[in-house]
Amino acid sequence: MPLPSRHIAVDLGSSTIRLRCAESAGVWSAPHLAVVDDQGAVRAWGEEAWRMAGRTPPHLRLVRPVTGGAVTDLALAARLLGSALRVARSGRKRMRASEALVCVPDHATSMERHVLRQVCKDAGLNRVTTVTQSVAAAVGAGVSSAPAGALLVDIGADRSSAAMIAFGAALVTRTVPRGAGTVDQRLVRHTRETCGLTVSRSMAEEAKLAAGREGDSVSVRGQDSERGMPRTTEISLTEIREVLRTTYEDTGLIVSGVLDSSPPELVDDVMDRGVLLCGAGAGLYGLDAYLRERLRIPVHVAEAPGDASIQGAFDLGRQGAPVGVA
């Protein structure tokens, strides 16, 4: 049976905004940021704003309306969501009857949930319900609502969380305010301190993604910290992997915390089923291997891990199931 065209799932991430609409065949996404002038007018958003990062004149600034899963600029978040909805829904402007299921971080306060709902309403969505990120990800990753426990780890841009899921609900959760984007920041600092080279976040991200390559080193371009002139240098893959290790350790701590606080019956389930990694940072080089070695249990990466939460929210809305909805 086809879905009603009014059904929409929303994931307002710190780095990416994701939508899943009944009219479209898949997930629509764009960088969740805007270029704003001195008067507060939006000059660019999404991909266009991303390309302008580090290149804007003094009267323009790059703004992210969501940080750590919490809305920091309600008006801008609503404006960007409204624009995203029109693009994702092929330019349709009428959304009076639209129903939305919006993902919220597991650690979100009641006020943060209220603000997220308000953003959706201000963007033109009428009926708005929230669902916790871990529950949505569990559905999107194919973890059923059976009583058997499942341990999901969500690696976002600036936060990472782990949750024990059973009966379609998150029973135990742990979160740290660091994620895949934190690795980029650490690599920027590392190249400045060890090589005297200031690199952009995008160059740091390229270096991060190169960690799984064969070879000994990767070339990075930047600005000489003393002379201000452009320079290229080599960074060893061993150095990059050592920077990544801090994120591995953060993730290992929250997973261990969830296991320590969970009933032994659910821990037994996880020993059989393993840990499931999702979120945009789930494919971070070496993370799954580190967790396997530390925990001595299977670790799997979800299919299309970055889209697990938004797909799960969409499926929950399609089913009309209140399970896990907060």
UniProtKB/TrEMBL annotation:
Instruction: Give the region (Disordered) as residue ranges.
Output: 211-230
GO MF entries: ATP binding
What broad class describes the main subcellular location of this protein?
Answer: cytoplasm
Cytoplasm is among the record's keywords: yes
Gene Ontology biological process terms in this record: cell morphogenesis; regulation of cell shape
ATP-binding as a keyword of this entry, yes or no, is yes
Q: Where in the cell is it found?
A: Cytoplasm
Q: Which GO terms describe its cellular component?
A: cytoplasm
Which keywords appear in this protein's UniProt record, sorted alphabetically? ATP-binding, Cell shape, Cytoplasm, Nucleotide-binding
Write out the similarity annotation: Belongs to the FtsA/MreB family.
Q: Which PANTHER family does this one have? A: CELL SHAPE-DETERMINING PROTEIN MREB
| Annotated protein name in UniProt | Rod shape-determining protein MreB
